[in-house]
Amino acid sequence: MKVIIVGAGPCGLLLATLLAKQGIQVQLLEGADKLDNQPRACHYAAPAKYELARAGVLDQIAAEGFHPGSVCWRKKDGTRIIGLSNRDEPESSVYRMVCLELGRVIQILHDAAVKQETCEILMNHKVTSIGESESLAWVDATLPTGEIKRFEADYVVGCDGANSQVRRCLFGDLEFPGWTWDQQIIASNIYYPFENFDYEDSNFIVHPEDWYMAAKISKGGLWRVTYGDVPGLTKEQYTERLPMRFKRILPGQPDPSDFKLANIGPYRMHQRLAKSLRVGRFLLAGDAAHLVNPFGGLGLTGGIADVGGLYDSLLGIHKGVADDSILDRYSEVRSEKYRTIADPLSTANFKRLWEKDPDTTAATDEFFKILERAAADKEFSKELQKGMMNLRHDFTEFWHQEGETSNGSAASVGPSKET
């Protein structure tokens, strides 16, 4: 079997690594000349850790990353509304989240992929068109010289992000059902001593206008601050406005000399799901398949869960223990996971920051009531954490017979020793 993957982001590189480890021929085409390093999602929850362990990269991510042990919601003045700690959960547990900048994770995945003999990564190969016959699929890619080159495979997977060319070729430029949030958000990475204000590892500030998230994302004191601003400006204008916004919203009302800005990335948020994640020999995963807002980390973790499911589906076909129809199940199940988990939860997570009165939300929000119970009941708290695994699905259940799997008990998955 040969698989073409379009897009060298976390999903594309993870899928390439998993497939190539099984001896499947993989060609990964990326239109850019270098790997992406913009500030994006950086929290990896249980389903993501599970798949990263299967790929043999969790050891390194865990060693370099930061393992947050608490999360809370606060009023703008810093008053704690509600929170939850999982410091009792060992860092090696699949249920203990790990944080590492996405750019670094992408590099780790890239290094793992290129070590595989059956994996070839081609940068500066921009896919422009696609096609298929009864026996194979192909993509046409434009090279820096202007030459157009055709690549053929049994299957093509679009992991090429929100603006996916593969999805556009399948459904049209404007066909991505869903909607766009009115709010403009800015993701920034900064060094600022939030600890001096008794902030916990992850903090969500509830306010009608000045809502934001402040989360520690590295051992070295780097924090992700994601906040709102007026829409329609350039990155340069948002960068100019950042000191004013931080003076208004952050604890201590810092001056520019009080914090160090590492990077900044403005972007719009969407809740969208492609009409199908499978059309013939073409498949979609990650942001190419669906989009959610970043609050709760369901976009990146959900995309990685896509990859795990697609890997098991393609592996079943490769091993002869599943037929082509398993890819229809992939599309159906992953779409349902989006509709029933990722979309509603991420929507509620974001609205919780600004939709209700921060002085009364603790008493009226059902989610906060659940957290209050979890804070007092450790067993219930553990069950709540395990619930994140519902975002993934074991597609080996659709295999025809017992075959070799790389699955195991989710609760026992720790850092993998594979290389």
UniProtKB/TrEMBL annotation:
Residues 400-419 are annotated as: Disordered. This is FAD/NAD(P)-binding domain-containing protein. The keyword Oxidoreductase applies. Residues 1-16 form the signal peptide. Its cofactor is FAD. Residues 2-337 form the FAD-binding domain. The keyword Oxidoreductase applies. It comes from Pleurostoma richardsiae. Keywords: FAD, Flavoprotein, Oxidoreductase, Signal. GO terms for molecular function: FAD binding; oxidoreductase activity, acting on paired donors, with incorporation or reduction of molecular oxygen, NAD(P)H as one donor, and incorporation of one atom of oxygen.
